[in-house]
Structure formats: C-alpha cells, structure tokens
Design a protein that fits this description.
alpha+beta, six-stranded antiparallel beta sheet, six-stranded mixed beta sheet, 22 helices
C-alpha cells in the first residue's frame, strides 16, 4: 500500500487548499523557520488518527483549525486527506475490494472529528487499524518529528519495543489484542453480573414460590370467609325479620293499652278537679289570715332586719359568698344540662312534627274565649279578696314576724352547732404527729440509702469504664498482629493462586518431564540450561518426544565442578543426561569447558551453558523453562509458608478474639451499669421529693391545727350569743296578738272559688274538645316551652355568672348597713310581736283546715297523676314499640345493605352464596359462634399480612427470565472461551512475528551501522522479561576504535546516526509506505550528513518507502529527487511550491 498524495484545507497555517503529491523516492521540504514545514508531518499523523492534542503542539484538538490572521478570518473547520493506492484487501470490510482509498478527517468547532473513507463515515478505530496494518500510523516511528531521535535515544527499553512491533507488523495486532482484552474483561464482567443477577432473581423466585403458596392459602381462606360472612348475614337477616314481626305485635298491644289508660286518666282528672274546687274557700280564709300576718311580718321584717340581721350579717355574708360560688358551679352545670336538654328536645320536636287541624283549632279558639271571660270574673273576685286579705294579713304580720324571728334564731343556733361539730370532726381527721414524724424519718432513711446506692453505682461505672479502656487497648494491641498475620496469609494465598495459574496443568496425555523434577532453589536456571528444550519431553513410552533412559556414563567432570544430580531429583530416564552436567561458577565456566569430555556440559547457577563441542549460551538468553522451574519451587515454598502463616494467623486470631470477647463483656457490663444509672438517679430523686413532700405535709398539718383551734374559740362565742337571741325571740312570739273576725273574708273567698270553678269548667270544656289531638300538641308545646326555657336558662346562666361578682359587693354593703341599724327599732319590734302572735294563731287554724283539704286534694291529684302517668307510660310504651318497630325495620334494611355492600348480593341470595355451610353444623350454631368464626377468619387473613396475588404470574415471569439469563450466561461463557483462545492465538502469533522481526532488524541494524560508521558493530538485545511481548529493547553499539557500549554512552552525533540506522533497519524488515524525517540531520556535521544521505539513497533502492525529508541542510537538499518549498506570504499563512530536481537535471543535461 502506498501513500501518493496529501491534501490540506484549513489545517493550522494552510488556510487555502494545498495538495502535496508524495512520489517515489526522496522528497525534500525546505523553508525558513516557522513557515509551517512541520505542519505537514502533523497533518499526516492527524489524518492517521492522532488523539493527543499535545502531540499536535496544541492545547485542544480544535487548535488545528486555522485561527485567522491579519488579513484572513478564522476557519470553522479543518480537513486533511491522504490518497492510498494498492490498498485492495487491506481496508475495512466495506472497502475491502477497492484499490484506491481516500482517507479524510474533518474537524468542526464544537462538533469534533469525522473520519471518512471514500466519502463514507467510518470509526476512528477503523482508520487507526488500517494504517497500523500497513506498518504505519499516527505514532509510527517512521514519522520522525523534531526531537524524536533524541526521544528514541532517551526512551526506556519498553518504549523502544514499539520499533520492533512496527517491524513485525503487529502494531495492529497489538491494538486488536488490546481490544480483545477489553472485550474479554467486559465479557467476564457481564458473566459476573449475570451470575449476580441470576442469584438475585433465583432468590426472588424462591420468595415468589413462597408468596404463591401464601396466595393459594389466602384464596382458600377468602372463599371460606365469604361463605361464612354470607351465612352470618343470612342469619342476621332472618333474625331481623322475625324481630320485625314481633315488634308489630307489641305495637298493636301498646296502642290498645294507650286507649284504656286515656279513659282512666280522664276519670281521675275529673275527681281531682272536684277536690281542687273544695279547696278554694279554705285557701281564701288562709290567705286572709296570711295577709294580716304578712302585714305584721312586713313590719317585723323591716324592724328585725335592722336589728337581727345586723348581728348575723357577717355569717350570712360568708354564706352568701359561698352560695355565690356554689351558684356559679350550679349555673355552669345547668348550662351544660340545658345544652344537652336542647339537643334532646330538638330530636323530640323533630319526631313530633307539626299537627294543625283546622276544626280543632276553631274549637280551641271558642273554648279559650269562654275561658278568658271566666278568668275576668275570677280576677274581679280575687281583687276584692285581696283587699280583705290585706287587712287580715296586717293583723297576722306581727305574729308571723315574731315567729319568723324565733325560727331564724333557732336556725342560726343550729348552723353554729353544725359548724362546731364539723370543726371537731376536722380535728379528729388530722393525722397523728407521731405517725407523720415516723413516715418522715423513714423517707429520709430511704433517701440516704438511694444516695449511697447511686454513689456505689458511679464508682462501679468508673471502674468498669477504666477496665473497658484497658480491654480496648488490649484489643487494639491484639488486632495489629492479627491484621499483619492476616495480610501475610492473604498475600501468600494470593501468591499461591497466582503461581497456580502460571503453572501449566500436569494433566494431559503426555505430561512433560518438568512436572516430575524437583530442583533445589537457586539451581532452576542451571537445570533449564542443562536440559534446554528437552525438558518439555515426556517419559511416557507412547509420547512422540520422550526420555527413554540410558545407562549412566562414567564421565569425569572437571575439578571444581559439582554434579547437577546433587541438586536435582528427576526420573531415572534423565540420570544419564544429568550425570554429564556439572555446576561451576560463571567466571570459571569458559576455562573449565576446554577440559570437558564428549557429551559433558557445564552450567552456572545463573543459567550459562558450556558444551563439550564448544557451544556456549549466555545466561541472559531466554529460558522459559527456568521461569517455570522457579515458579514451581516458589509454589512449593509458598505453600509451606502458607501453612505456617495459617497457624500464625489462627494463633493471632484466637488472641484477638479473646481480647475482643473480654472487651465486649466489659462493654456489656458498662452498658448495664449505664442503664442502671438513670434508674438509681430517678429513685434517689423520688426519695428526695418524698422527704420534701412529708416535710411540707407536717408544716401544713401544724398550720391547719392552729387554724382549727382559732375557729373553735370564735365559734364558741357566736354560739353563746345565738342562744341568747333565740330565747328572746321565742318569748316575743308567745306574746303576739290573736287575729279578728273573718266573715267578710270567707264570703270573698267563696266568690273567688265560684269564679275559679267557672274558669276551670271553661278550661276543662276546651280541653275536652281537643284532648286526643292535644296530647300530641301539648307535648309539642311542652317541648317548645322547654326549649325556650332551656334557651333562656342558658342565656340567664351566662348573665347570672356575669352578675355574681357584683353580688359580692352588695353582700359587703349589706354587712355595713346592718352594723348601722337604729337602736330604737328594737322597741318597735317588741310591740309588734304581740299583735303578730294573735294573727299567727288565726293563720295556724286556717292553715290546718287548708292542710286537711289539701290532703284530700292531693290524694285526688295523686290518683289523677297516677292515672296520667299510667297514660303517659302507655304512650311511652307505644312510642317504644313504634321505635322498636322502626329499629327492627331499620335492622332489616341494614342487613340488606350490608349484604349488598359486603357480599354484593340481595338478602334472598345469601343462602346460595353460603353454599354447603347452610346445611352444616355452623348453620344451626348460635349466631355468636358464627360471628366468632368470622372474626377468627378475618384475624387469620389479617395475620397473613400483605399477600401478592400475582405471585404465580410473577414466578412464571421470573422463571422465564432465569431461563433467558441462563442461556445468555452460556453464550457469554462461550464468548469468553473464544476470546481467551483468540488472545492466546494473537499472543503466540505476536511473539513469533516479533522474534522473527527482532532477528531481521538486528541483522539489518548491524549492517546499516557498519555502513554509516564505515566499520564497527552494533546489536539489539531484549531485556527485562522473557516474554518478547513484554520485553524491553536495549541498543549496544561499538563505533570504530571504541569499545562496545550502551547507546546512552555515545556522543550526540553517534547517537543520532545509531538511531537513524535503527529506524532504517525497521524499514528493511517491514517497510512503511511513508517515512517523514523532520530535521533529523540537524545535529550532524557535513561528513555525517553525507553518510546520512547515502543511507537514504540506499534505503530508496532497497525499499518502496516514500521519504519526505524536512531539512535546512544544503547537502541534504541536493540529494533530494524533488523539493517542496513552504513559504509564508502573509503572517500565519503557509503555501506550497514544488521543484522536481531530477527532471530539472535531466533538462539541464539536454
């Protein structure tokens, strides 16, 4: 494959399209410094897939785009194209059959790079592999930038190996191996991930199996629950219907009882009316006597209030204040009761409804008119009676006032005595001083005991924490050796695993004899040198390459040589070979080898070999068998060390676990003490509070006893004064005057009774018209009235509560007014008491007669009330029956609603839903048993917790996913196996090609070095690893007249020529299609430049590589076949001009 043309557009300083044909031979690029010559090399490397902006002498890859100049704006993109010919079979699959390829790379600001081959977009990796397979690329040593010769000289051996890879043509192979390694790691990661996912899904599947079983049990339980619920609802519905029929019978019986009770109540009411009519005249007479007495009483009250209340005002004021507070509490309770009553009355009013029959309303209006007329007549008679009664009351007032004064004095004396008894009871209820003192002393002892226990706990806790700190220190001290032993054990275990992996398995049809050999440490390389590749042969008789065994010869080893058999245990088939091998020091080997007998060999511990026939192999030659033997010995030693390390680890772990157990025990003890601390502190605080409480109780009892003593002394004085007042009031009441003639008063009373009788009859007539309906209307009116009353009570209670504070002030004022009562009122009170006595006797006689009549009236009223109560009871029973009937009907509806809501069926269909349970034992069991059975089933359902009813479906899905993932896992495992085989194949192929290239490059390097230096010798050497793919490349050179030495010890010019010889040796081994040398001849003098140019001409002759040489040296310019001049007509812009020197010389010769 050849690179025939380079095109640039907007790349760095080449703003305009530029085309540089790359022809066969030597092409020189000249121009002043800074004109953009090196941009051509960077363009080639960039189009080949360079990814490092630093290698482009830029900070960002977009810096390769022309950034503008004084006369030209910046470009938005840059593009470089190379034309490849003879590319058939080397391009990626879509272009495999195309002979000419145009590879381009374009970059736009902010959009990145796009690669194209023949106008079609491809990946960057495709382009990189294309050039790597052609022994070139962005990082190819054939593209030598400025300073790269110096970098090659100063490079590490590992980095120099890339030259050999280019020579072997395995740069692309290396990239493919790297890609395969990445794929292998990704596949192994996927395999691990698949294992994890499979384990997770299998765990989910196990859980789903359990859930599926739970779901199956749940469905059976749910079906039983539905049947039991249907049976229960059916039983309830049947029972509700039976109770409804029973309630209908009770309602009919209640209605009959109401009718009978109504008739009885009407008869009893008429008898009660007659008794009340007879009571009228007697009450009139009593009222006259009472009026007279009240007149005297009014005068007496006025006088006595000034005298008697002045003495008792303080006590009454105290009582009033107490009653004020009691009243406030009562009003609050009343308010709450009123609100409850209003709620109840509202419900009852709603049940009663309205009821407004027009006929009943008309009859009621007529009756009310008659009642109003009778009431007017009664009022007139009562007015006349009131006048007469006032006169009689004046006479009785005196007697009544004196009697009331005596009663008040006796009541006051009784109250004082009650207070005395209360004080005596309070004194007795006080606890004894001795008992309280003993309780206080016991509490103080408990507090002291709690304080001591708390102090002991704190001391124990401090001791436990100190021990815990010591145990933690011991734990940490034991942890360090344990971790060290564990780390050592893990390291040895990892080493054993690594060595196991490095050691090839012995299993096979013909295992090599190496597996049966045991060699002492340090003699592995000696044995590998002695046996060489023969160590891979087998001892099996069927093996194509085997050790058959031979007689041990009697060979005489040189002096100072020890037989290798002393250090090796091998099968008998190797005895003859090993007997002819002696171990000597490396410095003595060459000298002693001259005395070897035929077949004998000498080896050193370092791996040198001297044979009897003169063959010598140095220790630094690759010996894979030595590494395997060293691995084998190290594996045996590591296993022994691993066993000892395991014992050490067990011992250290036991010590650490013992320290850890002790620390955990002490930690648990400390935690227990810390837990008990708050409890003891709380007990100590409770004991202290109990002492304080008992001390306060003792002080309070002392104060209470002193207060009771003071009250008792004051009360004794009040009792003495009250006894004197009661004696004086009783004497005055006995001397009161008797009332006068009551004939006119009795006549007025008779007239009033007649008027009242007429009014009662009118009212009774009105009541008789609407009684049947009035019963309901009366109750409605009562409800409304009670509602109004309760509402008024709520409002009055609030007002009354607000006024209580003002009443307290009024009490104080009354106290002050009583103290200022006049003394002369006492004399008037004594005179009035005589007249009041007579009036009282008259009132008592009238009262006795009234009492007898009232007894009779009460008996009649009681009978009427009993009858009315019976009637009301009958109505209530009827209402109860109606409510029971409504409840039974509502119960039927409720059960029907429950059936529709819970069972989604009509009540008649519940028996069908219950199924076999309707004929089972549960159908005949008490309904309570059915309810308990249902509750147990619900509890079992609830106890089951959340149930996944889709578990079976999810289990099926999970199993399908497990099967899919298992198949994918098998596919990935097969892919991993294929990748491993592919990587092994690539490694084997790479090693073979690299070793072959090494031999070729080494030969070419020695030849080119001798050509450049006109003598001398040079060689390459693989170092640092026995694996060629991992080894480094070291350069040794011996210019004429000097000794063989490392490249780094040569002069600068010698280093440059040596490195150049190495680069050209690579060309000879695997010529790259293009070689760009950027000012490589800069450090060379004229003589060496001439040698360099001759070498270029020789390379042109031997290879098809096309050379581009960027130079400032006239000698080099003169040797070029053509020249490209790079000019900068404007600052920051480059242009190409070309001159074909070969054609120019031909024209000049003509």
């Amino acid at each position: 494959m050849n690179l025939t043309e380079l095109r640039l557009l907007g790349f760095k300083s080449f703003v305009d399209p530029a085309k540089a044909p790359i022809e066969q031979g030597l092409t020189g690029v000249v121009g002043p410094n800074g004109c953009g010559k090196s941009n051509l090399l960077e363009a080639v490397r960039w189009v080949m897939g360079a990814t490092s902006a630093k290698s482009m002498r830029a900070t960002d890859m977009e810096d390769v785009i022309f950034s503008g100049s004084a006369g030209r704006p910046a470009r938005e993109f840059a593009e470089v194209t190379v034309v490849l010919t003879q590319a058939r079979g080397r391009a990626p699959a879509p272009f495999h059959n195309e002979d000419v390829l145009e590879v381009s790379r374009r970059i736009r600001r902010g959009l990145g790079s796009i690669y194209r081959i023949n106008g079609k977009e491809v990946r960057a990796k495709d382009v990189q592999l294309l050039f790597a397979d052609a022994a070139t690329g962005a990082n190819s040593p054939a593209l030598v930038r400025q300073g790269q010769i110096s970098e090659l000289i100063a490079a590490k051996p590992q980095n120099r190996r890339r030259i050999l890879e280019d020579a072997a043509g395995i740069a692309g192979l290396h990239a493919r191996r790297h890609e395969a390694d990445l794929k292998l790691k990704a596949a192994e990661t996927n395999l691990t991930r698949l294992d994890e996912v499979l384990a997770e899904i299998e765990g989910q599947a196990a859980s789903l199996r359990k859930q599926a079983r739970q779901a199956e049990r749940y469905r059976g339980l749910a079906q039983t629950l539905r049947e039991t619920e249907a049976l229960l609802l059916h039983r309830r519905w049947t029972e509700a219907r039976e109770r409804e029929a029973e309630a209908q019978g009770h309602l009919r019986e209640a209605e009959r009882a109401v009718a009978t009770a109504a008739a009885d109540a009407s008869s009893a009411e008429r008898a009660a009316d007659a008794a009340r009519e007879a009571l009228g005249p007697l009450r009139e007479e009593e009222m006259v006597a009472a009026a007279v007495l009240r007149r005297f009483e009014g005068v007496r009250v006025g006088l006595e209030r000034d005298v008697a209340e002045a003495d008792a005002v303080i006590a009454r004021c105290d009582d009033d204040a107490r009653r004020n507070r009691d009243e406030a509490e009562r009003l609050e309770a009343l308010k709450r009761d009123a609100e409850a009553a209003l709620a109840r009355l509202g419900s009852e009013s709603a049940e009663l409804g309205t009821g407004d029959a027009k006929q009943a309303q008309a009859a009621l209006a007529a009756a009310e008119a008659a009642r109003d007329a009778a009431a007017a007549r009664r009022a007139e008679a009562e007015a006349k009676l009131e006048a007469l009664t006032a006169d009689a009351a004046a006479r009785k007032a005196r007697a009544q006032a004196l009697s009331d004064a005596a009663n008040a004095a006796r009541a006051r004396l009784e109250r004082l005595n009650e207070r005395k008894r209360a004080l005596e009871a309070a004194t007795k209820s006080l606890p004894a001083d001795d008992a309280l003192a003993q309780s206080l002393e016991a509490a103080r002892a408990s507090a002291a005991q709690a304080h001591d226990a708390s102090a002991k706990l704190r001391a124990a806790l401090a001791e436990a924490e100190a021990a815990l700190r010591r145990a933690e220190a011991a734990d940490e001290a034991a942890w360090a050796p344990y971790r060290a032993a564990e780390s050592a054990f893990n390291a040895l275990e990892a080493e054993v695993r690594g060595l196991d992996k490095l050691t090839p398995p012995d299993a096979g049809k013909f295992p090599p004899v190496l597996a049966s050999i045991e060699v002492e440490p340090g003699y592995e390389r000696a044995l590998a040198a002695a046996l060489g590749g023969d160590i891979e042969a087998s001892t099996a008789n069927e093996a194509p390459l085997r050790w058959a065994g031979a007689d041990v010869p009697s060979s005489q080893l040189p002096a100072y040589a020890e037989s290798l058999t002393r250090f090796v245990k091998a099968p008998a088939a190797l005895a003859a070979r090993l007997a002819l091998v002696g171990v000597v020091e490396a410095k003595d080997g060459a000298k002693l080898a001259k005395s070897l007998t035929p077949g004998a060999r000498l080896v050193s511990r370092e791996g040198d070999l001297w044979r009897w026939d003169g063959f010598t192999r140095r220790a630094d030659a690759p010996q894979p068998a030595a590494a395997r033997l060293e691995h084998k010995n190290r594996l045996a030693a590591a296993r022994a060390e691993l066993k000892a390390s395991e014992a050490t680890l067990a011992k250290a772990k036991a010590a650490w676990e013992a320290a850890k157990a002790e620390r955990q025990a002490l930690d648990a003890k400390a935690r227990g003490l810390r837990t008990d601390g708050p409890k003891l502190a709380a007990a100590e605080a409770n004991a202290a509070r109990e002492v304080e409480r008992l001390e306060a109780e003792a002080a309070r009892m002392s104060e209470r006893r002193a207060d009771i003593d003071a009250q008792s002394a004051a009360l004794a004085a009040e009792i003495a004064e009250a006894q004197a007042s009661a004696s004086a009031a009783s004497g005055a009441a006995g001397d009161a005057p008797i009332a006068g003639d009551d004939t006119a008063l009795n006549a007025a009373r008779a007239a009033v009774e007649a008027a009242r009788l007429s009014a009662a009859e009118a009212a009774a007539a009105a009541q008789a018209l609407v009684r049947d309906k009035a019963q309901r209307d009366a109750r409605r009116a009562v409800v409304n009235a009670e509602t109004t009353q309760w509402s008024a009570r709520v409002a009055d209670a609030g007002k009354r509560l607000a006024a209580l504070s003002a009443e307290l002030d009024a009490i104080e004022k009354r106290r002050d007014a009583a103290k200022a009562a006049p003394v002369e009122a006492r004399g008037k009170l004594e005179a009035l008491m005589d007249e009041a006595g007579a009036a009282e006797q008259r009132r008592v006689a009238a009262s006795d007669r009234v009492a007898e009549a009232e007894t009779a009236a009460r008996a009649a009223a009681d009978a009427a009330r009993v009858a009315e109560q019976a009637h009301a009871g009958a109505r209530e029973r009827r209402a109860g029956a109606e409510a029971h009937m409504a409840g039974a009907r509502a119960r039927v509806e409720d059960v029907a609603t429950q059936a529709r809501e819970h069972a989604n069926a009509a009540p008649e269909d519940l028996a069908k839903l219950a199924g076999a349970m309707m004929t089972g034992a549960l159908a005949q069991a008490p309904i309570g048993d059915v309810e308990r059975r249902l509750d147990r089933l619900k509890a079992e359902r609830d106890a089951a917790g959340p149930v996944n009813l889709r578990a079976e479906e999810e289990l099926t899905e999970a199993q399908e996913r497990i099967d899919t993932l298992t198949r994918e896992k098998d596919d990935v495992a097969q892919a991993v196996t294929k990748l491993r085989r592919a990587i092994t194949t690539l490694n084997n192929e790479g090693r073979a090609r690299l070793l072959k290239a090494f031999e070729q490059v080494d030969a070419h390097f020695a030849q080119l070095f001798a050509t450049l230096f006109e003598g001398g010798q040079a060689a390459l050497k693989l170092t640092e690893s026995e694996d060629p793919l991992e080894a480094g490349l070291e350069i040794f050179a011996q210019p004429p007249g000097k000794r063989l030495t490392n490249l780094s010890l040569l002069s600068g010019g010698e280093q440059a020529l040596t490195a150049t010889a190495l680069i050209f040796a690579v060309f000879l081994a695997n010529p790259a299609p293009l070689c760009v040398l950027d000012e490589v001849d800069a450090p060379l003098d004229d003589a060496n430049v001439d040698r360099f140019c001759r070498l270029l001409e020789e390379m042109k002759r031997l290879t098809t590589t096309r050379f581009i040489v960027i130079t400032h040296n006239p000698v080099t310019m003169s040797r070029m076949d053509r020249l490209y001049g790079v000019t900068m007509p404007e600052q920051g812009m480059s242009q190409l001009v070309s001159v074909d020197l070969g054609r120019a010389q031909a024209l000049a010769a003509e």
